[in-house]
Amino acid sequence: MAGKAVVPEGFYSHPSFSAGVLVQGGRTLYVAGQLPLSPGGELVAPGDIDGQVERVWQQIEAILAAAGGSLPDIVRVTAYTVDNAYVGAIVAARQRRFAGFTPPASALVTVAGLAKPGALVEIDAVAVLP
């Protein structure tokens, strides 16, 4: 593989994917779809979209930090949700995170389900590090 895995200490990890992968000389970071999981892989904040979105963004920020980046380095975000009723909460959380600097190109998709039963949201990202 042409990339270097980025998995923050204490993070839920799975043998089939990395939380993040650095490529292109360590400047581009691909953040895997983050589900609202505890370090042990259990669902966080069942039934609570605000709690789940917050957990997902905490994970993304931890992956960025482990790679030497931060939120302003994100250039692309894709969010997936299981119900259009959650779109407002997802958008509001994204707007809070990117207030004060250029927001990333973004997409938000409603899907039939996510890999973890009970998960209401999953978010992936691409960042270009300084």
TrEMBL record:
Pfam families: Ribonuc_L-PSP
Range of residues in the leader sequence: none
Enzyme Commission number, as recorded: 3.5.-.-
Taxonomy, superkingdom: Bacteria
Molecular-function GO terms, alphabetical: hydrolase activity
Class of this enzyme: hydrolase
Record keywords, A-Z: Hydrolase
PANTHER family associated with the record: 2-IMINOBUTANOATE/2-IMINOPROPANOATE DEAMINASE RIDA, PROTEIN HMF1-RELATED
Family assignment from sequence similarity: Belongs to the RutC family.
Name of the featured protein: RidA family protein
Source organism of this protein record: Phytohabitans kaempferiae
